């Protein structure tokens, strides 16, 4: 059996290692350059590879192709593979049959990284032998090849779910759905929503789907479609006989005749959206039979996720916050919503079809100045130009942070929450966040 892998990054190389171990003839093809450390791994493992090209003769003889999630379906090579009837799948689909571990799969437009990290923290603190992978950390396939985890918590993007056919998590979580990545879904929101719900398509009566019952897109989908999985909702506004909710400043979780409660004041994460992430993660922990005392302790000591509302420093009584992971409007909505002081907002980057009007009421209420950090800021300026008193354009992070310092007074906040992808001025959102933190430390 010949396995061809498109993309020589973390998921590609991980799949190559698992494929080789399982007896496939493996070939890795990357249209860009393969990083040195990954190249070394391929060479050590005797895996054939090429870079900066796709040699069709070496690709079209595949029995199965694993496509890295960053490669769009409309790429010519992928279109040709589909025309030839060669299966094109994701790393998750390829790897899952090779493990008997319990899989928790977490997707959503926002909150999925925090929910994934918190869930992993809860299970690991309880002594479970649990791996963390998918869209973050080490490749899922690589972990299956190397380690023997009894369970995995996987963060799953819509791109990864597009490439699944038989994959089925025992516990699926959909944190929320809002328009994102529409450039990859023919600018059709329904296509994107359907991609997220692929997480539950193979689930049975023995499996669980946890979801945000306050989310319009999720509720509408569940009204029109069915899943065999047992539904467990969580909400900030409703209460349930079975599900998770907030009542009198307490988080209450009722699952299978058991009740768990905890004061929200004792939960380390702040903000309404993080209460939802905590409810989702705690519901998973309850389903996995984790002790209540362990859950309470883990919720109170969780450190949060880098680049997500990360408090960097307070300088001259001005708080600098790194929310570089906010790559869409909905994520920035959560960030602005949790600001309690006058805010200088650093925004901009590669726009993926954003509607900034959703932020209008928050900007009027909380934002005193906007710093545009992107190659093309026209849309942001058009929407907010008449709403804030001060609007500045900069083309590097150091200028953005220095300008932020100039525009603030004691008690203010400087918030980097770009609402956009980072690929115009930065390598990725991590690079953008790290440059912000460095610039703050140099003030």
Can you summarize the main beta sheet? 9 strands, mixed
Helix content: 25-40%
Distance between the termini: 57 Å
CATH superfamily of the largest domain: Mur-like, catalytic domain
CATH fold-level topology of the largest domain? UDP-N-acetylmuramoyl-L-alanine:D-glutamate ligase
Described by the principal axes of the CA atoms, the overall outline is globular
The total domain count is 3
How many helices does DSSP assign?
A: 17
Assembly category = single chain
Sheet-strand content, in percent, reads 15-25%
Radius of gyration: 22 Å
Could you name the ranges where pLDDT drops below 50 across 5 or more consecutive residues? Answer: none
* Strands side by side in the biggest sheet: 7-8-6-9-10-11-12-13-14
Instruction: Provide the CATH top-level class of the largest domain.
Output: Alpha Beta
What is the β-strand count? 20
Structural class comes to alpha/beta
Estimate the mean pLDDT confidence: 94
CATH architecture of the largest domain, by name, is 3-Layer(aba) Sandwich
């Amino acid at each position: 059996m010949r396995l061809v892998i498109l993309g020589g990054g973390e998921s590609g190389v991980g799949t190559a290692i698992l494929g080789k171990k399982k007896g496939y003839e493996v070939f890795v093809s990357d249209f860009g350059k393969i990083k040195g450390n990954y190249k070394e791994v391929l060479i050590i493992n005797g895996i054939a590879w090429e870079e900066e090209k796709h040699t069709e003769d070496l690709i079209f003889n595949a029995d199965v192709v694993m496509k890295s999630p960053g490669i769009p379906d409309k790429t010519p090579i992928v279109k040709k593979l589909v025309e030839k009837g060669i299966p094109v799948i994701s790393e998750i689909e390829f790897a899952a049959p090779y493990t008997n571990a319990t899989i928790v799969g977490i997707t959503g437009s926002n909150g999925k990284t925090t929910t994934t990290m918190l869930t992993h923290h809860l299970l690991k603190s309880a002594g479970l032998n649990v791996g963390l992978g998918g869209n973050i950390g080490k490749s899922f396939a690589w972990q299956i090849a190397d380690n023997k985890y009894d369970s995995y918590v996987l963060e799953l993007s819509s791109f990864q779910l597009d490439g699944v056919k038989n994959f089925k998590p025992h516990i699926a979580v959909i944190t929320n759905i809002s328009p994102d990545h529409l450039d990859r879904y023919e600018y059709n929101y329904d296509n994107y929503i359907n991609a997220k719900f692929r997480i539950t398509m193979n689930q049975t009566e023995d499996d669980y789907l946890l979801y945000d019952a306050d989310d319009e897109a999720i509720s509408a989908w569940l009204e029109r479609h069915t899943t065999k999985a047992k539904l467990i909702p969580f909400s900030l506004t409703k209460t349930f006989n079975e599900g998770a909710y907030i009542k009198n400043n307490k988080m209450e979780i009722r699952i299978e005749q058991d009740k768990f409660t905890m004061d929200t004041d004792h939960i380390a994460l702040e903000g309404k959206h993080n209460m939802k992430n905590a409810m989702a993660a705690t519901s998973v922990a309850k389903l996995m039979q984790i002790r209540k005392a362990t859950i309470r302790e883990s919720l109170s000591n969780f450190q949060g996720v880098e680049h997500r509302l990360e408090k960097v420093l307070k300088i001259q009584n001005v708080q600098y916050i790194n929310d570089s992971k906010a790559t869409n409007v909905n994520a920035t909505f959560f960030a602005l919503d949790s600001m309690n002081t006058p805010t200088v907002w650093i925004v901009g980057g590669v726009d993926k079809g954003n509607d900034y009007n959703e932020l209008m009421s928050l900007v009027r209420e909380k934002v005193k100045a906007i710093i545009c950090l992107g190659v093309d800021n026209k849309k942001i300026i058009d929407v907010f130009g008449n709403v804030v008193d001060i609007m500045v354009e900069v083309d590097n992070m150091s200028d953005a942070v220095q300008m932020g310092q100039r525009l603030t007074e004691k008690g203010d906040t400087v918030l980097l929450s770009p609402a956009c992808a980072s690929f115009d001025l930065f390598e990725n959102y991590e690079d953008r966040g790290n440059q912000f933190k460095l610039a703050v430390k140099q003030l």
